[in-house]
């Protein structure tokens, strides 16, 4: 259901690196529109034709809603490894120079694109000064939230409001939610099954936000820290990674080798049940910054693991 909706959206927006596609627009008469952000209301005066996305998640949202950005803050050399579900769509419009070395927006580079709408995430506009500078270039839209990780559906709705694609957004949310629930529904008593999502660092495991797994019907393990504000788990407490589904990202080859050789890790319930997902960069991106097209990819990756719970 969701895959069909997404396929239709992507097929309808394959415009390349030029002006954002306005075919099938719900109508420029929906403008002006004021979108609430954490820094106040932002008014988009007319239907945007030069949308700039500060990152792959914002680009995913725009593309899934039928609008191809003119530029995206992303490295074209790493698209296949980082966002394989969007690599083709972003190949001609990815520009790593839109953000500075510290990850903040490069105002001069952004201005040179001459956008008429900037799509951002909350962490990219952490203070009023950054927001005001971006908003002086073009209306800058980010979710009205203080959260580090804003829920994917809330982010999509914010982007959709700026693009006047609210109906399309609701269809995507309904379809994606139903597709995940269908997979989880094959598992008896799925609501009693737990998940954990961690990064394997030297000497410890750091929890990441795995709340997307709740779309399957899974629940977080008692120590699963989706807020990412708690202390990491030291190696001597590896046994506490006892969820039914364990997702672990070992960024380096050395980290991966350690997992294979660690008897504490190899004794975990999920290892014995074949319900461990060994993540890579793409998976980490899809889970940490979920958006419609990436979520469809993520569901496909996790469906066999969740299926092992049956």
UniProtKB/TrEMBL annotation:
It holds the Pfam family Peripla_BP_2. Its main location: other. One of its GO terms (biological process) is iron coordination entity transport. Keywords: Signal, Transport. It is found in: Cell envelope. PROSITE patterns: FE_B12_PBP. SUPFAM superfamilies: Helical backbone' metal receptor. It comes from the Bacteria. GO terms for cellular component: outer membrane-bounded periplasmic space. Signal peptide: none annotated. Residues 50-310 form the Fe/B12 periplasmic-binding domain. Belongs to the bacterial solute-binding protein 8 family. This is Periplasmic binding protein.
